[in-house]
Amino acid sequence: MLATIIHGEKDIRLEEVPNPVLSSGGDAIVKVVAACVCGSDLWPYRGITPTDSPKRIGHEFVGIVESVGPDVSTVKPGDFVIAPFYDCDMTCANCLNGVSTSCLHGGWWGSDDRLGGFADGAQGERVRVPHADGSLVATPGQPEAELVPSLLTLADVMGTGHHAAVSAGVTAGSTVVVVGDGAVGLCGVLAAKRLGATRIVAMSRHADRQALALEFGATDIVEERGAEGIARIKELFDGIGPDCVLECVGTTESMDQALRSVRPGGMVGYVGVPNGGAELPIGFMFSNNVGANGGVAPVRNYIEELLPEVLSGAINPGRVFDLELPLAEVAEAYAAMDERRAIKVLLRP
Amino acid sequence: MLATIIHGEKDIRLEEVPNPVLSSGGDAIVKVVAACVCGSDLWPYRGITPTDSPKRIGHEFVGIVESVGPDVSTVKPGDFVIAPFYDCDMTCANCLNGVSTSCLHGGWWGSDDRLGGFADGAQGERVRVPHADGSLVATPGQPEAELVPSLLTLADVMGTGHHAAVSAGVTAGSTVVVVGDGAVGLCGVLAAKRLGATRIVAMSRHADRQALALEFGATDIVEERGAEGIARIKELFDGIGPDCVLECVGTTESMDQALRSVRPGGMVGYVGVPNGGAELPIGFMFSNNVGANGGVAPVRNYIEELLPEVLSGAINPGRVFDLELPLAEVAEAYAAMDERRAIKVLLRP
């Protein structure tokens, strides 16, 4: 089958690889219907995370189950399924605590799973899914084609934006600022809205992203950054700041923006993969009672909550996909995201 | 009147100072009934925080109102009052948000308040209290003498232990570890118990503190520290750790102990004044979804919740005072705490 391999900086190739096979009783083989490129895929693409040897890439997909091992009971061939950006058993203590990203037996796509077998990257035609009973969620029946993009966001960005909002403690009546206007930040706006936030500021300098933020429920847009951005945010919230800030980037600057924007006693929910090198400033946080909560989002735990709203059309997070390409053009998909010509690119094998 | 002055490392003196006078319409003058020495007073006592010139010290007291300015309406001469370890107006946006330590107009005992006037330190005979309507809480009638120690803990350590528990998200059924067996840590045990925690581990190596922790509701004692301490805690909680850890010390080692003991998805509530120099390790926290929340405890916001239980005897946090001395022996009070001969010393002018 065909799958995407990253060879190095800005070197993305679609290549022939062996078809995956069922290698444990709990596996499923899923034929990919739609995959996509993640902001975090751009770190190796840009060479910031070095790629020592060619490797499979991609971790977001939805698809149709082709076959399952003898121990699989919750999904069957023909089911349309959503996979989180990792595999997990949903039976260990961490999964049951709502933190399936810390599954004691799980793993990451495109690498050996924690049982030692290779699980395919998602930017390909098929994926071997370990712990299929835990990892996969089947939709009731076959979804309408126009729902596929929104269903695909449950694999990562919508669940991740939701995690930022939940981690920041967003609830009915909260005031919220979202740092980051990528797909996750925009989904954070949508998540804050559905959790009942009454005022949501999206920090963005791009007209197309600002428009989508407003469509998703943002009430204000702030274009300033750094000290000016913090001052503008404070000004919008009685001089003290909002209850919650969603940090959806992962740089030192964006985290600083988040921590210094939130009001005393407020909470920063962060989901941006930390890439800045700076630790969290405990002295500032202590003096101002500013908390930090979040991490790698346990999106699998959120699928049951979010899926009905996607199916009913109550939320439409798939709007973050502003470019759709065949898998054959995966290199162009990376380039479009890298050059900010697209917010997020959907790939169809 | 007499008041305590710190002159430098291990140099505590009781000296004659001018009586305080009402200097704003919102002031009260309070005659101190009981004060105490705080763990944080030991930082300058030990010379870790340098004392450049002699200064007033002490920030925890209860007393009787002697006089009030014309704008004061909630307390009157003769009232028995509890003061938090700072002054605050309880009307600004931060106070109303529950974060009176970030009062826009408040200040700290023993220094100029944020209006520019000097507010006395608490280890003396009288204190000028700015924003008396906000800062002070009067008890209904005159409390029984035996309640005074527990009422005094509402000025700091009980409210601070409670803040650690609230910040860590302790609720009915939570599993909790408390790092630190000083008065705040012990009050953290008591706070976790009253919030409904079902299992509470106190980390302590001192028999007297272990005994009090057990009296306050601890279910387990762990004497190990560092890597052994973390391993022992993990072992006690299914190999993954407790839901909540209360960090009540403030060193790099104690925070590390807390962050690496809590389970994935858990929360560290921290109230130890950060003195270690290390920032919070965002990479570890992100990977494990470990949050950190807390800071300088807004104890004034908690007095209304905790006071009825102190008055009824439902909780008896005053048990942390294991030595009582006249104010004249304040230097011995510091020495006893410094040498760990006492958990916490109560002073009576």
TrEMBL record, chains A, B:
Q: Kindly state which keywords UniProt assigns to this record, in alphabetical order.
A: Metal-binding, Oxidoreductase, Zinc
- Return the similarity comment: Belongs to the zinc-containing alcohol dehydrogenase family.
As cofactor, the record names: Zn(2+)
- Tell me which PROSITE patterns the record gives: ADH_ZINC
Q: Can you name one GO molecular function term for this protein?
A: zinc ion binding
Residue span(s) of domain Alcohol dehydrogenase-like N-terminal: 26-132
Keyword presence, Zinc:
yes
UniProt-listed InterPro entries: ADH-like_C (IPR013149), ADH-like_N (IPR013154), ADH_Zn_CS (IPR002328), GroES-like_sf (IPR011032), NAD(P)-bd_dom_sf (IPR036291)
Q: Which domain of life is it from?
A: Bacteria
- The residues that cross the membrane are none
Please give the name of this protein. Enoyl reductase (ER) domain-containing protein
**UniProt keyword annotation of Zinc-finger present:** no
Q: Report the residue ranges that make up the Alcohol dehydrogenase-like C-terminal domain in this protein.
A: 183-308
